[in-house]
């Protein structure tokens, strides 16, 4: 009986959370809930990631939210994800996924630098990353950067290195010239709680100082699935489960990098 109560409770929470997301996507109340004060409206945004599929696995709530508010989105991917020798395939998959996420292919840049190759234990130099990001900011007139935090969601060293590259950039950038936001990593229970995590994310954002953390609900969850499905070389059973059960499919909390 106790297990039945637990299962029913989880199902009710799951359904209620999905209803909340659907309701916000169909109404103007999203602005009131997130209360971003126009912080992310109509900006030239650069998403800095480490591998093809990072954008679809972790950042789709942010990308959908920004696209719906008139932002001009660019993606800078620091590698082709060639750890298994499928770099060229994964590169093309990212182009296809970007179309699903309303990012023009011409605004997606994928690097294949000899010193920035995919792999656990392959450390990337923060100065090199900073230099590359700075050049992309200048070329695309970027005024807002979004990337991983210092844990990088999964703890992958390349994710963490990208974060350090952005931080290094900010050290040598004049205040106000460019704004940078990091995707907050959560603990494993929240990470795999699916849409239920939206409640904790909203509460967490409210506890921070106004304007420092913003909670962005995914207005188009199906688009997230469609985008990840373009990464056919990676679309194996456990990643399908990840996209369905990961909280990052349904909500992103962004924290301003100071």
UniProtKB/TrEMBL annotation:
Cited Pfam families: PIG-L
Task: Identify the species of origin.
Answer: Nicotiana sylvestris (Wood tobacco)
User: Per its record, how is this protein called by name?
Assistant: N-acetylglucosaminylphosphatidylinositol deacetylase
PANTHER family, sorted: N-ACETYLGLUCOSAMINYL-PHOSPHATIDYLINOSITOL DE-N-ACETYLASE, N-ACETYLGLUCOSAMINYL-PHOSPHATIDYLINOSITOL DE-N-ACETYLASE-RELATED
Gene Ontology CC annotation, any one: endoplasmic reticulum
| Family as reported in the entry's similarity comment | Belongs to the PIGL family.
Tell me the Gene3D superfamilies matching this sequence: LmbE-like (3.40.50.10320)
GO process annotations (BP): GPI anchor biosynthetic process
The EC number(s) attached to this protein equal 3.5.1.89
Q: Which enzyme type, at the first EC level? A: hydrolase
- Provide any one GO MF term from the record: N-acetylglucosaminylphosphatidylinositol deacetylase activity
Which gene underlies this protein? LOC104210665
């Amino acid at each position: 009986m106790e297990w039945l109560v637990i299962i029913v409770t989880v199902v009710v929470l799951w359904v209620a959370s999905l209803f909340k997301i659907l309701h916000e996507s169909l109404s103007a109340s999203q602005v009131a809930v997130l209360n971003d004060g126009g912080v992310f409206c109509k900006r030239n945004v650069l998403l800095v990631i480490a591998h093809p599929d990072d954008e679809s696995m972790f950042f789709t709530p942010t990308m959908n939210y920004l696209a719906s508010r008139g932002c001009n989105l660019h993606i800078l991917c620091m590698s082709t994800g060639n750890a298994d020798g499928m770099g060229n395939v994964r590169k093309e998959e990212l182009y296809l996924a970007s179309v699903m996420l309303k990012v023009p292919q011409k605004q997606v840049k994928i690097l294949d630098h000899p010193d920035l190759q995919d792999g656990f234990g392959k450390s990337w130099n923060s100065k090199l990353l900073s230099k590359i990001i700075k050049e992309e900011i200048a070329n695309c007139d970027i005024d807002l950067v979004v990337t991983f935090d210092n844990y990088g969601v999964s703890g992958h060293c390349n994710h963490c290195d990208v974060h350090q590259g952005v931080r290094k950039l900010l050290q040598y950038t004049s205040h106000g010239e460019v704004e940078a936001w990091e995707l907050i990593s959560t603990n494993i229970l929240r990470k795999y709680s699916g849409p239920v995590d939206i409640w904790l994310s909203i509460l967490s954002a409210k506890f921070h100082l106004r304007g420092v953390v913003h909670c962005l609900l995914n207005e188009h969850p199906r688009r997230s699935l469609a985008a990840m499905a373009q990464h056919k070389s990676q679309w194996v059973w456990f990643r399908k489960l990840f996209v369905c059960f990961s909280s990052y499919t349904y909500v992103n909390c962004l924290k301003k990098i100071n």
